[in-house]
TrEMBL record:
Cofactor(s) recorded in Swiss-Prot or TrEMBL: Mg(2+)
Organism for this UniProt entry: Hymenobacter lapidarius
Coiled coil: none
Protein name: Endonuclease V
Gene Ontology MF terms in the entry: deoxyribonuclease V activity; magnesium ion binding; RNA endonuclease activity producing 5'-phosphomonoesters, hydrolytic mechanism; single-stranded RNA binding
Family, as annotated: Belongs to the endonuclease V family.
Source superkingdom: Bacteria
Record keywords: Cytoplasm, DNA damage, DNA repair, Endonuclease, Hydrolase, Magnesium, Metal-binding, Nuclease
GO cellular-component term (any): cytoplasm
Calcium is among the record's keywords: no
Known role: DNA repair enzyme involved in the repair of deaminated bases. Selectively cleaves double-stranded DNA at the second phosphodiester bond 3' to a deoxyinosine leaving behind the intact lesion on the nicked DNA.
Entry's Gene Ontology BP terms: DNA repair
InterPro entries from the UniProt entry: Endonuclease-V
Length: 229
């Protein structure tokens, strides 16, 4: 997800402490597990900030495995939380939940443009949303947030582990989604495991760098921005 990073004074220490505690409590609720059954509907989720004070969150729902578009919705709202590095999920989540509530076709799993547990406190936006919605989620991000990895082979389908630099814990996988393009960072969110997250990411590739759920969410975000300008 594209983040707005405004300049300004350092965040309030009391706020940082509160948000850290909330993330630690939410982390205890995260479950890594395979899906109960193969999904019939998969959603893509993306958020962007048209202005420093507003957020646009988009969901697209696709049939799986055909990836036929079933539904697309968005919610546009005011951002009421300041920018705090490492806690961007708190800026996005309320508006994303409003967008999710508009869906008539609830997905079996959500692919989020962002990180799952591949986060310093294991609570990226995909994990955050999964816990709040109690829906299976995983993250597909374009940039690394934390961890170490070896570059995967240049051909599509090559994968290497993303691990915690201190503990060696597996926190994601680095996936080459298209020949000779920069890889993606795939990590489980909630009620999803790494194998499922990577498998679904690969199954949703259609010749682009981004898998179809997040690619189409990003595409429709640009279209919906025209409605709110």
């Amino acid at each position: 997800m594209p983040y707005y990073r405004p300049p300004g004074p350092p965040p309030d220490p009391a706020l940082v402490k509160s948000l850290t505690q909330q993330q630690q409590e939410m982390r205890l609720r995260v479950r890594a597990e395979p899906l109960a059954r193969e999904p019939r509907l998969i959603a893509g989720c993306d958020s962007s900030f048209p202005t420093p004070d507003t957020i646009l969150s988009v969901f697209v729902v696709l049939k799986f495995p055909s990836l036929e578009l079933v539904e697309k919705v968005y919610n546009y709202g005011i951002v009421d939380m300041p920018y705090v590095p490492g806690f961007l999920s708190f800026r996005e989540a309320p508006n994303v939940i409003h967008a999710f509530a508009k869906l008539e076709n609830k997905p079996d799993v959500i692919m989020v443009d962002g990180h799952g547990i591949a986060h310093p406190r294991r609570m990226g936006i995909a994990a955050h949303l999964g816990v709040l919605l109690d829906v299976p989620t995983f993250g597909v991000a374009k940039q690394k947030l934390t961890g170490i990895f070896q570059e995967p082979g240049l051909e599509r389908g090559n994968i290497t582990p993303l691990t915690d630099a201190k503990t060696g814990e597996l926190i994601g996988e680095v996936v080459r989604s298209k020949d000779k393009v920069l890889p993606l960072f795939v990590s489980p969110g909630h009620r999803c495991d790494q194998a499922t997250a990577t498998r679904l990411t690969l199954a949703c590739l259609r010749g682009y760098k981004l898998p179809e759920p997040t690619r189409l969410a990003d595409y429709w975000a640009e279209q919906f921005k025209k409605e709110v300008r």
